[in-house]
Structure formats: C-alpha cells, structure tokens
C-alpha cells in the first residue's frame, strides 16, 4: 500500500486580504478624522431636539464650565491674532512672536490677560494645570475683561455667529450675565445666540 | 509562520564548496505590520468623533434702554408663567403675581418630561385655537413633502400673528431663578419647540415670585 503522504502544511495563513482591509480602514479614519485643539475646559453639554448644525468656522464661542468659570474662543488664526494685538494694546501686556503664534493656534482659553503670557509659554501639561487652577476670564462689572474680549472680537469679526456652550450644571445667573454682556449695545450688540447642545431624538408624535 | 530564510545552514556541512542557489521563500512575516496597522486603526476609531454638536437658536428681545418705550405687555389670561428653580423643579401659574391686586395665584409643581410640563403646555396650547394640533398638522405636511421645508417657520408665525388669534394665543414666560441650572433652561426651551408654543420669552423671576417659590418649597 502506498504511504499516505501528509501534505506539508505550513501553519501560516495568507494575511494579505486582512492587511488590505485594515489599511483601508486606517486610511478612511485618517482622512475623516479632524483634530481639534484641546479645549481648556471640560464641558458636559445638555441635549435638545434641535437639529441645527453649528458651523465649525466663523464662530465666537463663550464657554461656561461646571464651576461657573468663563472661557472664550474665536475661530480663525488671523482674527485671533488681531484680537490678541488689540487686547495687548488695551491692557499694556506685550506678547512676543512665539506667544502670538501659540495664541492663534490654541483653542479656548480662560485666564486673565495678565497671566496670558505665562499661560502661552507653558507646555501642554503645565497649561492643563494652569487652566485647572485658573478662575476663568474676569467678568465683574468693575473688571470685565470678558466684555473687552467680546467687544474686540465683535469688531474684528462682526459676521461671526455667537455661540454659548454651557455645562448642564452651570448656574443660570452666570449664563444670563454673559448674555447680558453680549446683548449690551456697547459690548457685543448681538441678540441671536446659538446654545450648543447634543442631539436628542424628539418625542413620538402624539395623536 | 512565513518567514524569510536568512540562516545559512548553520548546522549542515557544506558539500565540498559546491555553491547552490538557496531556496528562499518569497514570504515575509507580516505580523508586525499588521500589528501596527491595527494599532493605528484602533487609534483613529477611538479619536474620531462622528456626532457634531447641534445648536439651539435663541433670539432675545432687544434691550430697552429708552425708558419712554413701553415694553410689550401680554394678556394676563393667556400668560403661563413657568418658574424654574433648584433640583430641576418647575412651578407654573397663570396670570400675574401682583400682591397689590388681590391674592397671589397658586403655584403648581410639575416635573420636566412628557407627563409633567409637556402635558400642561400641550393642553393649554390646544385650548387656544387648537394651536398645538394645527402646528403638528403643518409639521406633518412638511415631513410628507406637501409643503416646502423652509416654509414651516413662516407658517408658524402667520398662524400665531393672525388677527383673529393674535391677542389670545398662549404666551409662556420662562423665569429661571438664581438656583436654576443651565440644563433647565435648555430643557424648557426644548419644550417650547416640542409643544409648538408660539410666543415665549426668557425672563428672570422677580422678588414676588422668588417668595412664592420659597413658600411653595416649605409647604410641600
């Protein structure tokens, strides 16, 4: 009887299709994902049934976090740079080129203008710590830096939409105060706000 | 496992210096590459955010700095005051709370959600020209494509500002007090949209109302 020859099977399998697929997916996710600069505040936004999309560009955003601290954000590098220059002139705080560049690439910030240079010099871990310790942008009626940020931003970019991003547990009077400043004819002069919310499915239509 | 044969036959003795082309397989070990590929894949899957945030539009009335201009007044019978306060509590009352004009209206306590505030709002809205149902009808027509999508807002305004109804539609005044949370305001504004309220405004609770809330909280 002839011997049965066991085929010499190597235990390897052809991984090529799997690799193809994996890299296809990698490419897909790489192209679709967009990196956002890290926000200075962690904000858990409320949800609503509104399905209006908020544009990513041309936006003036004011953030209010859990501890009622106020942060500010403006999109566009050119706009940010001229905003910083205006503030620097007003508060007599000077910024070097590196700090200016850093500012235009950053996302939201929430430090008083006097601390801004050191905040901009800090690296990302130090900055996180500073942001945690910070008291937010001052907005008392006596020292309203927020008003000045809003004022200059509105003059630099009058067409930008104004958005408010509040945390679920932010207390209402703070948000109200921000709105009041925004509405004030001498500060923001804007009556239309976008409240940033998460998508929520609406209730089933009742008969 | 497929691999590139690189050892030069260490153990085996060479046969009299006769050179032979080595049988090398053309397979290379792809495991590290696959590892890396999946690592990247995982990273990108985890960092991608698909749902972009939405926005709710809120238009506030222009501030009246000129004291000679009278602010809009609303008919007391059709005014529903919604007071928002701490612990996600909602109180509502009809009409006006003015201690100089007789007894203060009683506060009703409700919760957010379908059986609370929403039920009240839909009921009250329907009592006046069946406004909720009418707007729902319009919404349905838009959803079915009978009406153009962008006409809804205009139709809604037309409905509520029609001469026959103008003075008798439900007006909701949202009055958060100092303990209200931002979430409450967003939820309440959401209810306005869900319940098809034609006229609503975001105001602040006054002294009388704060007192009413405090009283209601102690007696309940």
Fill in the keyword field for this structure.
heterodimer; A: alpha/beta; 5-stranded mixed sheet; elongated; B: 220 residues; alpha/beta; 6 helices; 6 strands; disordered N terminus
Query: Strand tally of chain B, please?
Result: 6
Overall radius of gyration of chain A:
25 Å
Q: Hey, roughly how much beta strand do the residues of chain A contain? A: 5-15%
Question: What distance lies between the first and last C-alpha atoms of chain B, to the nearest angstrom?
Answer: 75 Å
- In the predicted model, the low-confidence regions of chain A spanning at least 5 consecutive residues are none
- How many H/I helices of chain B? 6
What is the element string of chain B, with H for helices and E for strands?
A: HEEEEHHHEHEH
Using only C-alpha atoms, the radius of gyration of chain B works out to: 34 Å
What portion of residues of chain A is helical? 25-40%
Q: Provide the spatial order of strands within the biggest beta sheet of chain B.
A: 4-3-2-5-6
Main β-sheet of chain B: number of strands, strand sense, barrel status?
A: 5 strands, mixed
Mean pLDDT, all residues of chain B: 77
Q: Please, what is the average pLDDT of chain A?
A: 83
Q: Which pair has the most extensive contact?
A: A-B, 57 and 53 residues
How far is the N terminus from the C terminus of chain A?
A: 83 Å
Secondary-structure content class of chain B? alpha/beta
Structural class of chain A: alpha/beta
Q: Low-confidence stretches of chain B at least 5 residues in length (pLDDT < 50)? A: 1-15
Strand order, main sheet of chain A: write it out. Answer: 1-6-5-3-4
Multimer state: heterodimer
């Amino acid at each position: 009887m002839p011997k049965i020859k066991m085929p010499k099977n190597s235990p390897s399998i052809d991984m090529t299709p799997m690799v193809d697929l994996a890299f296809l997916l990698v490419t897909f996710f790489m192209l679709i994902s967009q990196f956002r600069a890290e926000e200075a505040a962690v904000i858990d936004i409320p949800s609503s049934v509104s399905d209006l999309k908020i544009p990513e560009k041309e936006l003036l955003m004011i953030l209010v976090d859990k501890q009622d601290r106020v942060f500010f954000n403006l999109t566009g590098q050119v706009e940010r740079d001229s905003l910083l220059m205006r503030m620097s002139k007003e508060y007599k705080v000077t910024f070097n080129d590196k700090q200016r560049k850093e500012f235009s690439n950053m996302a939201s910030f929430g430090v008083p203008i006097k601390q801004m240079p050191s905040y901009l010099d800090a690296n990302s871990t130090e900055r996180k710590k500073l942001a945690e310790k910070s008291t937010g942008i001052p907005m008392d009626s006596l020292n309203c830096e927020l008003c000045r940020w809003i004022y200059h931003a509105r003059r630099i970019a009058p067409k930008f939409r104004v958005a408010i991003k509040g945390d679920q547990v932010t207390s209402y009077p703070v948000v109200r105060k921000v709105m009041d400043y925004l509405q004030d004819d001498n500060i923001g002069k804007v009556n239309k706000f976008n409240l940033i919310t998460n998508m929520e499915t609406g209730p089933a239509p009742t008969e | 496992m497929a691999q590139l044969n690189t050892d030069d036959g260490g153990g085996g003795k060479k046969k009299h210096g006769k050179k032979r082309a080595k049988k090398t397989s053309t397979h290379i070990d792809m495991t590290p590459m696959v590892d890396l590929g999946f690592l990247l894949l995982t990273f990108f899957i985890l960092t991608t955010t698909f749902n972009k945030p939405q926005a709710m539009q809120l238009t506030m009335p222009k501030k009246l700095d000129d004291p000679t201009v009278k602010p809009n007044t609303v008919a007391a019978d059709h005014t529903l005051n919604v007071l928002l306060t701490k612990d996600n509590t909602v109180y509502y009352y009809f009409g006006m709370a003015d201690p100089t004009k007789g007894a203060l209206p009683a506060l009703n306590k409700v919760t957010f959600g379908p059986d609370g505030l929403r039920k009240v709002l839909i009921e009250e809205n329907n009592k006046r020209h069946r406004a909720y149902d009418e707007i729902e009808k319009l919404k349905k027509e838009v959803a079915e494509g009978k009406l153009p999508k962008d006409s809804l807002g205009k139709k809604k305004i037309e409905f509520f500002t029609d001469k026959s109804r103008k003075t008798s539609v439900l007006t909701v005044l949202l009055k958060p007090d100092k303990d209200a949370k931002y979430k409450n305001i967003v939820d309440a504004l959401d209810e306005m949209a869900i319940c098809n309220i034609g006229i609503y405004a975001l105001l602040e609770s006054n002294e009388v109302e704060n007192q009413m809330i405090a009283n209601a909280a102690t007696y309940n």
